[in-house]
Backbone:
DNA sequence: GCAAAAGTGTTGGTTGTACACCCATGG
DNA sequence: CCATGGGTGTACAACCAACACTTTTGC
């Protein structure tokens, strides 16, 4: 696959790999695909692909994510580049890793052309992956732990409307700790980032909880005034 | 410059750019080089270069930094990749940005082969730079502000032995605020990360201050126990 | 009534902030 | 004796952790 400058050709020394985080059943998940071809045929790996000459790296990551999930407008950020000399056995390839946060139960998954299967794996039950994908995953998970403490991004893993209990479980799963319910409630509510919906939970076998949604406009306003999200 | 797989050849779609931070006269500085050739001849820009097929991207960044400053073992971390389609006018080049923290008065600078000059610029007095270098610089500065709050890396900008006042001025310069002296002292000293030297300042026209050094071993030990540096 | 989760209240200790103050040294 | 920075003490407010408690709902 020699490089050339035709618009649709790809950059053959650079790839993109995506860490797609989801949250189901109280546990943090990662989306993996099973390669249908190439030197890692039949192995689970991070979904990835190549960058075209006529798209930015962010666009490339979004395109890959869209083709995999069918969903656009997903929270997606660059993690960093990984470039050990021998990370890819066939030839020299440097990869730029991205991480995405998605609400796992919103859509169906599509393996696409180069994958034969696609599946969620619990973050603590990841198989041995090819190349440096385990390293990328570990780095990304540590990054997420850090990030989730200082920026209100966790909401992207939940449905639009969620309860405080769901939110707490999410944080407990990501941070691998347990949190005090009353204190967690107060802390979050006092930030004024959660707008109560006019709805309550339904079909639960206990008192129905208030549903909230993340108020992004309020967050932007508060941040201008120097507010910093924490914990 | 067509790519090939000879060990010493470079990857022509990928470059490295370095944000080299220094601290002088109470102000945060950035090192820029004046291009001696190429499409940005005679313009100031971030120091950068190319990645060879037989070196990792971290090694490439270290090599570039060493050739520029003559110093090894400098604090150096990857920032992230920048890859807009038209960031580089001649052809498609994605760049991986690194940032380094150095003690500016420890060595002499060497422009190297492709630069005619090299110079420190105050962070608030940066000229218009070519490509997306101003954007990289802004992103890196924001990243540094964030990082310096949560990890004890500021010390890399100071001499091995420093006073609390110097440290405070450093933080004030990076964070663009003023800090309360007594509270700053207590906070830092209570962390037990500063080991007092058996020395005091000399040749100052006021009471000589205690000199401290950053105790990395202690930091590693404390971090294992769950300690998190803050502010 | 019981289980399960929603939701509120209280308390004591820690931490942060603001500021007043004394000390040492050179000029 | 004054300017400059070094260094300590204190007091109030804000915050946080721990835990006891009440409420609502389905079975």
Residues:
């Amino acid at each position: 696959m020699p490089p050339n400058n035709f618009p649709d050709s790809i950059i053959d020394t650079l790839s993109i790999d995506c860490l797609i985080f989801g949250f189901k059943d109280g546990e943090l998940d990662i989306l993996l695909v099973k390669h249908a071809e190439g030197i890692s045929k039949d192995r689970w790996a991070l979904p990835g692909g190549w960058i075209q000459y006529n798209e930015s790296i962010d666009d490339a990551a979004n395109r890959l994510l869209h083709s995999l999930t069918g969903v656009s407008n997903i929270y997606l950020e660059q993690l960093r580049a990984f470039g050990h000399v021998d990370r890819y056995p066939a030839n020299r390839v440097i990869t730029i890793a991205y991480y995405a946060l998605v609400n796992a139960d919103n859509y169906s998954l599509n393996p696409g052309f180069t994958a034969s299967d696609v599946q969620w794996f619990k973050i603590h039950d990841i198989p041995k992956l090819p190349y440096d994908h385990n390293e990328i995953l570990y780095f990304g998970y540590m990054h997420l732990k850090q990030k989730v403490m200082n920026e209100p991004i966790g909401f992207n893993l939940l449905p639009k409307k969620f309860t405080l209990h769901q939110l707490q479980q999410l944080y407990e799963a990501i941070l691998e700790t347990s949190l005090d319910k009353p204190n967690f409630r107060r802390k979050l509510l006092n930030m004024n980032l959660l707008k109560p919906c006019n709805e309550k939970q339904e079909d639960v076998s206990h008192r129905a909880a208030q549903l909230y949604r993340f108020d992004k406009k309020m967050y932007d306003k508060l941040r201008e005034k120097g507010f910093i999200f924490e914990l």
Notes: Residues 26 and 169 of chain A are 6 Å apart (CA to CA).
